[in-house]
Amino acid sequence: MSFTEILDRTDISRLVETIAGTSTSQVEAVLGKAEVNFSDFLALLSPAGENYLEEMAEQAQAITLRRFGRVILLYAPLYLSNVCSNSCVYCGFNVTRDVPRITLDIDEILSEAAHLKKWGFGHVLLVSGEAPKVLPVARLREIIQALSLDFPSLSLEIYPLSGPAYAQMAEAGADGLTLYQETYDRQVYASVHPRGKKRDFNWRLEAVERAGDVGFRRIGIGSLLGLNDWRWEGIALALHADYLMKRYWQTQITISFPRLRNIPGDFQPAYPVNDTSLVQLMLALRLFLNDAGFVISTREPASLRDHLIPLCVTQMSAGSRTEPGGYRHPVQEGAQFVVEDQRWPEEVAAAILKSGYEPVWKDWDYVMHEGSEHADHHKRDVQGSV
Ligand code: SF4
């Protein structure tokens, strides 16, 4: 069964209404538990749960340490093109916006990549708008092949592909896919995606399963926080991540928490999410989904990102530019979104060290988690297979 069916069978609005009545004693009962099930997660996500962030943070920290060790994986986005045929109302690359459109050629991509390599990155996220005409599958293959010589881990954040096309990407050297559904609410989805291929909700939602089926090693999902009620999206995210973790148990499932703020143009999010709500969402998900990787990008300010390091985060971007060619020629024009944390990568790494964690520049490996449950789990797998 695909996740589309599960989503359509679940009355998330009713669950949101129900948890509005959760009592503090129900939340307290969950906080003592060694394992948090889906109903428990709902209690933690409830309005009453907001009064227990400190207790949740303590548990989230302990779980994250046990599962992932004291490491934070650093990565950087590399924008290939800002050409896009879609008109997502919240995006700086929206086809209706009058911004310079740039698609990098292979030499320019390698030159951008050289900056990232010089800074120490081994994990790069290749990003583009929905531009199959300027970035067809064959071209993406060439790019991945060229970059895989220098980068041990390449993830894609591009338009949804077919299963055979994902297989080609994996064969060329891509090992990860990040694809946010943006919102799991079909009505909201239709209203913020007025035209283009992206209007096809199911094609997008099922893309991560197509990638999982061909063996992608890491799959990232997320909601754009601000498009819809954050508790509604939090429930959908929990269900989606749980489904993927069970179906693709050998794949690292990650959840990102992109919050809509400071968007180019005049778009204003209908459901702005404050810091407290963002933290509650992350902590509740961590207590429910112990093994999911949590990603926090440079959309968030440095102070909040630093605060989140010891709580539940496992991956952070650093030094990001969100316009094609931005590492060589930084300009804000043509950017997808405004970067809040403008620190250099080495400054982000220093902040991680200061928090008592180790910044990891290349794709993680279970060896780096020596002593953690994650490492022990892999060791048992390896031992069992010889
Ligand atoms: S969010 Fe993606 S698909 Fe939508 S306009 Fe921006 S780049 Fe294009």
TrEMBL record:
InterPro entries per record: Aldolase_TIM (IPR013785), BATS_dom (IPR010722), Elp3/MiaA/NifB-like_rSAM (IPR006638), rSAM (IPR007197), rSAM_sf (IPR058240), ThiH (IPR012726), ThiH/NoCL/HydG-like (IPR034428)
Top-rank taxon, per record: Bacteria
Pfam families for this protein: BATS, Radical_SAM
Necessary cofactors: [2Fe-2S] cluster; [4Fe-4S] cluster
Domain Radical SAM core span(s) in chain numbering: 70-308
Biological-process GO terms, alphabetical: thiamine biosynthetic process
Gene Ontology MF terms: 4 iron, 4 sulfur cluster binding; catalytic activity; iron ion binding
Keyword set, alphabetical order: 4Fe-4S, Iron, Iron-sulfur, Metal-binding, S-adenosyl-L-methionine
NCBIfam families linked to this entry: thiH (TIGR02351)
Cited PANTHER family: 2-IMINOACETATE SYNTHASE (PTHR43583:SF1)
Protein name: 2-iminoacetate synthase ThiH
The species this protein was found in: candidate division LCP-89 bacterium B3_LCP
